Structures are given as structure tokens and as C-alpha cells.
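#lab-general

N.A. 3:47 PM
ok so I finally got the sequence cleaned up, no stray characters, all 86 residues accounted for. can someone with queue access submit it? mine expired

B.Y. 3:52 PM
send it over

N.A. 3:53 PM
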Amino acid sequence: NLATWAEPKGGFFIWVALPGYLNGEALLSQATAERVVYVAGAAFFVDGSGQHFIRLSFSLPTAERIVEGVGRLARVVQRASGTARA
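B.Y. 4:20 PM
back already:
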């Protein structure tokens, strides 16, 4: 798996863990180019860790927009990890 997450039981955000070799902050410009924006996880870790986490909001977009955004984000992660399909 290229990402893991837990189904949220409330709130406005979901945490996604990327493979440890990927850096959420480094991928942000690629995600933004795909019209997906998130908060890089390192901003929430006082010990300097958390580079492979990203925080996504699910409170405003419709279900259809979330599905579309997840697909776009998946392509970014696949390209970065070298698993993109031709």
C-alpha cells in the first residue's frame, strides 16, 4: 500500500500516512499542480518527525469532489514512488 489511514469517526480532517521514504511537504507542489491541497504533517510534530504524514480536510468538499481529489493525489504518490502506471 502506498498510503494508510483510519476511517474518521468525526472531526474535519483525516491523517494519511505515506511510505516513510516520501515527504509530504516535498510532494505538496506536485499535488497543488494537480489541484489538491493538504497540510504537510511535519507541522504537527514537535520532534521534527511526521514528514511522511499529510492532513486532508473532508468537511467542505462533496463526496464526488473527494473521490476526484483522492484520485489526483494517488497519481502524485504513485509517480513519486515509481509505481505509476503507463
